[in-house]
Amino acid sequence: MKHYSTTRRTTRQIALVGAATLLAAAACSSGFDDGETEQEESSGPQELNVLIASSGDAETAAVRAAVEAYQEESGNTVNLDVAQDMNQQLSQSFAGGNPPDVFYVDSSQFANYAQGGSLYPYGAEIEDIDDFSPALLQSFTTEGELYCLPKDTSALGLAVNDTLWEQAGLTEDDYPGTWEELADVAGQLTGDGVTGLVTSSEYQRIGAFMTEAGGWITNADQTEVTADSPENVEGLQFVQGMLDDGVMAFTTDVDAGWGGEAFGKGDAAMTVEGGWLAGAMAADYPDVEYTVLPMPEGPAGPGTLAYTNCWGVAQDSAHRAAAVDLVRFLTQGDQQIAMGEAFGAIPSRLSAAEEYLAAHPEEAAWGVTGDWVQGPVTAAGFDRVLGQFNTDLESLRTADVSEILADLQTNAEAALEENQ
Amino acid sequence: MSQTVSRPAPPTGRAASRPGRRRRVGRQGLVGWLFVSPAVVLLGLFMLLPVLMAAWVSLLDWNGQSNPFTGGKAEFIGLENYRDLLVDDGLDRTLFTTSLRNNAYYVLLFVPLVTILSLSLALIVNQRLIKARSLFRTVFYFPSVTSTIAVSTVFLFLFQGSGTVNRLLSWIGITGPNWFADSRGVLWVLLGALGIVDPDHPSGLLADHGFLGLSWFEWLSGPSVAMCTMILLATWTTSGQFMVIFLAALQDIPRELEEAAALDGVNRRQLLRHVILPALRPVLFLVLTLALIGSWQVFDMVYVMGQGAPGNTTLTPAFLSYQSGFKDADFGQGAAIAFILFAIILICTGVQRWLLRERSGRSAR
């Protein structure tokens, strides 16, 4: 081919033009703005985007009602979106530089977002901060700065199916207060297609038994890993023993997605869940009568786990003032109580919690406070480690407990070191 | 439009050597590039550029919350992400090698199974004597047009512990496993049933020694029961698609060939072995390659059916890459996994191409 050189020159020119086009496109498409986000006029109506991860229709409807009340009061417009996969959608929008203004922050993702500079720390702007439970605020404080307000809270409680309880010939006097009593009533309730106690195999549920034995994955301020302690071994071995006796099962063993499903369908006489169970039971199994008890005490006394999400405000939001205003509205006492009425979320405000629990004494076990209530692990980089812990716990029935905990110790120490 | 465009390209290099022609050819080249430029720009913008960006990201410690291309917060860490996955002992490497093991078993079972099944189906529906051929073709092809997500969801229900499949099995006296919650490797289950090993309590040489963070016991356990169910599903949904490819190739084989073979007095097996299969070689390569590439990229099924559960035995590199990025906010590592996966697919395809090459002497081209 004699016209080789001509073609090649043309090719090169075109390649150059093409590359320039691509670079230009890349430059335009880059949504990142590493500088300070410009704030729009603070007066006049503004438009806010809110992204929530709803536990169900009840929660969605309740948040929608609250947001509509805010629109009316403030004159701002609020678009409420429900995420299918919260973590993915949030990290995608952070990466795209266009996050929602207000969103739920899962406690497991909190450290990651806060350290990545995606959260606007508005804690100092909240006037009546003393009304929130200090333990919850601690979960969302990093390097001395409070980033976001807990939206609600719930501790784990032991839910008992009243009908099955009576059928087994048990009375209120038999409500288990200790591990031995728990194993005992679980044995009496098991049989005829019913398993005494069914929970999911996650540490988020059976970890409660670790705290009752006096252990936990980390120390109080999450600076040290304490996974392979003898207390944790004792807690998990108790669960293992109940599994082994057949008086306890994991949700996967009874074809349930979570504890509430097995409990509602009557496959489980007892389950360990938090306040979200109330909303789910009312929606899916309204005919099932149940009672919520505090978690039984272990060798080290009472212990349970508490969960919470917070209302995050995006650092990249152009309406941060309005966003904080919305959060302030949504965390008001009466709003929190309305949420509790709708789907069983215990208010994170102490005054509101008191009022709510006085009206709902049956949910008292979910609203317990005290230094024996363990908050979630929020250390950075722990998500993967705890995911692996959960994977190991799936086979708890046959596994070696100290081996599982030793692996957790190694992995968690590595994660802690990496993210220091 | 100019005339030069519509004129056909000069047939020989001799004609192009004349100066007047030469310029025209140059312009033709330019015009040709102009015509392909939409495709080139689109491919460059949506394929090449993202690939290069991902390659850069795989060298960073990037949490997805800053601009990775302007320096700043995302720290450049060189090959650290790759080292974490392949060399340094730790959770990252264990998860990655687990996913590789799972996917390797998936490939080993899925690729031969789907090839044999789709070829058999194609041979069946290619029979001229069969009645209602188009009905069979439609039936066999149908799973391929159904969305994997929908099929996976249905399978989840079918294979529940108390689901339809186990109900059926119980009629013939078999207690089926809890398919999607069973993390035991099938090899150990079989050996355990024979009383040779105890799958629940591994011990001995195999459990004490390992490679890349997994013990030999874990490497050799075979796909888990849950993984086997996924392989079954994938084989069923994909076979129709490959059947169509085989069918097209079968109908391309000249009838004279078969007639000539019949005259030579071959039986059906010899016909398949010496006439049909050699004629199908290029298509066989295509199907094997597509199946191989597809099976190293399993994602949707894993996402729907358990996200790696039970016991990480359905974790695949493609899903792990997604998980590292979007769940653990470690996009650098996610990108690194994607590039290692890319290398694996390239190597596998190369090996396969070499195995299926035209043997010497027969190649006429």
Oligomer: heterodimer
In CATH, what is the class of the largest domain in chain A?
Answer: Alpha Beta
Query: What would CATH call the class of the largest domain in chain B?
Result: Mainly Alpha
What would you call the shape of chain A?
A: globular
CATH topology of the largest domain in chain B: MetI-like fold
Describe the structure.
The complex is a heterodimer of chains A (420) and B (365). With 420 residues, chain A is α/β, with parallel strands linked by helices. Chain A has two domains: 174 residues, D-Maltodextrin-Binding Protein, domain 2 (3-Layer(aba) Sandwich), CATH 3.40.190; 188 residues, 3-Layer(aba) Sandwich (D-Maltodextrin-Binding Protein, domain 2), CATH 3.40.190. Chain A is 45% helix and 14% strand. Chain A contains 16 helices and 15 strands. Chain A has a five-stranded mixed β-sheet with strand order 2-1-3-14-6. In chain A, strands 10-9-11-8-12 form a five-stranded mixed β-sheet. Chain A has a three-stranded mixed β-sheet with strand order 7-13-15, covered by helices on one side. In chain A, strand 1, helix 2 and strand 2 form a beta-alpha-beta unit. In chain A, helix 8 crosses helix 9 and helix 13 packs across helix 14. The N and C termini of chain A lie far apart (63 Å). In chain A, 48% of the residues are buried. By secondary structure, chain B is mainly alpha-helical. Chain B has two domains: 55 residues, no CATH class; 233 residues, MetI-like (MetI-like fold, Orthogonal Bundle). Chain B contains 17 helices and four strands. In chain B, the strands form two sheets. In chain B, strands 1-2 form a two-stranded antiparallel sheet. In chain B, helix 12 crosses helix 14. The longest helix of chain B has 39 residues. The chains are: A alpha/beta (420), B mainly alpha (365). At the A-B interface, helix 1, helix 3, helix 4, helix 15 and helix 16 of A face helix 3, helix 5 and helix 16 of B. Chain A: Belongs to the bacterial solute-binding protein 1 family. Chain A: Pfam families: SBP_bac_8 (PF13416). Chain A: It comes from Streptomyces hainanensis.
